[in-house]
Please model this.
Amino acid sequence: MVMNDKSGKEKIEAFTPRDWQPLFALIPEIEGTSTFGEWKGGGKDQEGVIQFPYCNSEPIVSRFLEVVYDLPVIIDFNWGAWDEGRKMTDDEGFDFDSVDLFTKCKLITAIARSDRFCEGALVSAFKSGLILKILKSMEREVHGRRH
Model:
């Protein structure tokens, strides 16, 4: 299920801490994971057939996608044209506690959706620590804690 901007904000604001638990339960596993995926393929096989490279992600990445779609925190908006979100994710020092929960859901949406068009984008967001930063900020906000 995908929500639009207006209905999404209302639904997300109505989530209880218990609703968020499946997503926050992934945090320890993400923290304990050192490899989120790797590129495979490319070149030619033994018969000379060209093999296109592809990103093979670890199971935690798939579970993350399942949870964000099941909750749902995926918002229907023009994420590709959302320059504000791109600036946030490109800034390694960005303070995700400075934006609201709905904006963090939009960031997750943009990252998850971009992976459909740019293979490996989600794995890269895990490797860089971006997903973990967003999730930890979400958890602090939901539980009323700051920094």
About this structure: The chain has one domain: 3-30+58-142. DSSP finds eight helices and four strands in the chain.
